[in-house]
Design brief:
alpha/beta, 6-stranded mixed beta sheet, two-stranded antiparallel sheet
Length: 204
């Protein structure tokens, strides 16, 4: 396991929500964080069919282009009744000619469950894969997951993406209803970050 011993880290994303969450999680380590958008880096094409594969594509592209270590996050919602969909295509389900519409995407997920008369609870997981890559080609990968179920209608105005339709196991609120700090403490991203910190940031 390679320790992160630098002072600057590129977040290989243009997603404002992800950048905010990741920045908050890294703040205690005194690392200067910049996004791929800040550096005007192109977004590479995500051609893999796994979270790990796409996380590696994004992290390595940003590390090579910037000459700095880069951290990527490939995450998504996997619904058991839909064979794991939308999975790595989670963001694609929200694409419209006018930009991403996650309200529409959540409706699509629920409608597809209705079409096949999926049973209840409608089990789902949020998955997060983090890849920390260095310009020399080395990387470390960490995976996090949180289990829960889909709810409808969607509830809550916090969070982003599919948060308003996802209720974690053992909770009565969706991620969209929760106080952001409470969500961060239990999320798939927090799970992956705890592993990243233990592996690469220990002792900072």
């Amino acid at each position: 396991m390679r320790l992160f011993d630098g002072n600057e880290l590129v977040i290989a994303s243009h997603n404002a929500g992800k950048i905010l969450e990741i920045g908050a999680l890294l703040e205690p380590f005194g690392v200067k964080v910049m996004s791929a958008g800040d550096l005007n880096l192109d977004e590479p094409e995500e051609t893999e069919d796994t979270f790990v594969g796409n996380a590696r594509i994004k992290a390595h592209a940003a590390a090579v282009a910037s000459g700095r270590p880069a951290l990527s996050d490939d995450s998504g919602l996997s619904v058991d009744a839909l064979g794991g969909a939308p999975g790595v295509y989670t963001a694609d389900w929200a694409e419209t000619p006018a930009g991403r519409d996650f309200g529409m995407a959540m409706g699509t997920v629920w409608d597809k469950c209705e079409e096949i008369d999926a049973g209840f609870p409608r089990a789902a997981q949020f998955n997060c894969t983090l890849c920390l890559a260095w310009p020399d080609g080395h990387d470390e990968v960490f995976e996090g997951i949180v289990h829960g179920q889909l709810v409808w209608p969607m509830r809550g105005a916090h969070g982003f993406g599919f948060d308003p339709m996802f209720q974690p196991d053992g909770e009565t609120e969706t991620f969209g209803e929760m106080d952001p700090k409470r969500k961060h403490d239990m999320s798939h991203r927090a799970d992956a970050f705890a592993k990243l910190v233990a592996g690469c940031f220990a002792g900072r």
